[in-house]
Amino acid sequence: MSEDCIFCKIICGAIPSKKIYEDDEVIALNDINPSASVHFLIVPKLHIASLASCKTQHQALLGHMLLLAPKLAKEHGLAGFKTLINTGAAGGQEVFHIHIHVLGGGEKSPKA
Ligand code: AMP
Ligand code: ZN
Questions:
Q1: Position in ligand 1 atom list of the atom nearest CA 35
Q2: DSSP string, 24-87
Q3: Is residue 89 part of a domain?
């Protein structure tokens, strides 16, 4: 848990959210500013700043997150999807708690 982290606050319930999936290790939630008709985030409950901070001990957790992507995508009716992990400010990361974006169903304009 990192006190300044918006995803940690969502995970502990300090900020309300509508989770689309939860288990002991991860949550998934719809992106607040979607870039596609379906755009959700797979977020571990453990605070890890980015993919670049991951260690061997996180291997199973990363695998668990990746394997959830097709499962949840299918549940959302996606025949195919894109995954994205922005890493570091120079890689476009804005929330420094690792997460996988899952996008599908057609790109939306930013204001759609
Ligand atoms: P990234 O640039 O990879 O760090 O992406 C962070 C993503 O988190 C962005 O797509 C934001 O729209 C999304 N986001 C930020 N705050 C929230 C929130 N409270 N609930 C859902 N998604 C959020
Ligand atoms: Zn966090």
A1: 10
A2: SSEEEEE-SS-SEEEEEEEEESS----GGG--GGGHHHHHHHHHHHHHHHHHTT-SS-EEE---
A3: yes
Which CATH number is 10's domain given?
Answer: 3.30.428.10
Is 1 within the bounds of a domain? Answer: no
The residue segments making up the domain with residue 78 are: 6-104
User: Which one of the ligands is nearest to 48 CA?
Assistant: 2
Domains identified in the chain, total number: 1
What is the value of pTM for the model shown? Answer: 0.94
User: Which residue, judged by its Cα, is nearest atom 13 of ligand 1?
Assistant: 31
pLDDT digits over 3-35, tens only?
799 999 999 999 999 899 999 999 999 999 999
